[in-house]
């Protein structure tokens, strides 16, 4: 397709990855971000092999390996410290052709920002409206600025402004029923082995640690709590100690080790899969299109897949921008909807929406062979655009 000017709203993982892919295709790309400083909502992210393959395709494999953690196995333990399952992930990596890289979100975002080019990211620009004609698109910002291009990519997250335009309605967020605390701590053998992802589960809660770059662990806790609860940052350590009283020593050590002022506390929501990702020359990407709970670890990966598929269709179609975006929607809509709903079901199981189902899951963890877990992960990974 002829040279395009693309306007991307949002400088998160999806927006930056899309920017890189479109720039590499030879297009003029500008990204507009509402905040004045990039501060990711979560401390870490588990980027599975399908997401890493996208970064490899964009020439960022070496940079990703430098900032990611080495995760060779995953382990489930009960809140009474009973071993439930231990899964060697190496056979999975051999079958899918790429290891995952858990990573600190700040490190990932900075890597993507550097690769895209900081000069083309405009901070403090809150998009308030978009419009289009047959030939162009226009984004309007809070300060009155207007920018015009051939297409607009709405990568502005779960509370997307662009989504409202594409769908002609406001899509309500769906509270997933639990609160997530997360952050980073120095790696320590008393917490977890350096190449292991450990998950403690019980009482409809979970506590977890996984390795990221810089000799650190990314940790997260999850507890089912009614929506609207608040805790001051200084009190989060005490809050966690209460929720996880009596849990194993590594969990207690983690709670005492973490910095409560640097710990995130998030009420987790998702959205129902929308009917459309695209309206003419305007497309949704990442969480704006298919925000999910993080229980499959696929949110960032799906945004990266979106970016690659979007760029591919813009490069390979010669009919129109709208045609390319329509083809992007056709390819991405079913896969992302399936994963949103799969993550939702898994969230309900983990966080005891039905206590009997959750107890059955705990028992299943003891009996399920490692190969079954690897196969489930393999199926998700190989369903991506790069196989």
From TrEMBL:
<keyword id="KW-0285">Flavoprotein</keyword>
<comment type="pathway">
    <text>Purine metabolism; urate degradation.</text>
</comment>
<keyword id="KW-0560">Oxidoreductase</keyword>
<dbReference type="GO" id="GO:0071949">
    <property type="term" value="F:FAD binding"/>
</dbReference>
<keyword id="KW-0274">FAD</keyword>
<dbReference type="Pfam" id="PF01494">
    <property type="entry name" value="FAD_binding_3"/>
</dbReference>
<dbReference type="InterPro" id="IPR002938">
    <property type="entry name" value="FAD-bd"/>
</dbReference>
<comment type="similarity">
    <text>Belongs to the FAD-dependent urate hydroxylase family.</text>
</comment>
<dbReference type="GO" id="GO:0019628">
    <property type="term" value="P:urate catabolic process"/>
</dbReference>
<keyword id="KW-0659">Purine metabolism</keyword>
<dbReference type="InterPro" id="IPR036188">
    <property type="entry name" value="FAD/NAD-bd_sf"/>
</dbReference>
<dbReference type="GO" id="GO:0004846">
    <property type="term" value="F:urate oxidase activity"/>
</dbReference>
<keyword id="KW-0503">Monooxygenase</keyword>
<dbReference type="InterPro" id="IPR047712">
    <property type="entry name" value="HpxO"/>
</dbReference>
<protein>
    <recommendedName>
        <fullName>FAD-dependent urate hydroxylase</fullName>
        <ecNumber>1.14.13.113</ecNumber>
    </recommendedName>
</protein>
<feature type="domain" description="FAD-binding">
    <location>
        <begin position="4"/>
        <end position="340"/>
    </location>
</feature>
<dbReference type="InterPro" id="IPR050493">
    <property type="entry name" value="FAD-dep_Monooxygenase_BioMet"/>
</dbReference>
<dbReference type="GO" id="GO:0006144">
    <property type="term" value="P:purine nucleobase metabolic process"/>
</dbReference>
<dbReference type="GO" id="GO:0102099">
    <property type="term" value="F:FAD-dependent urate hydroxylase activity"/>
</dbReference>
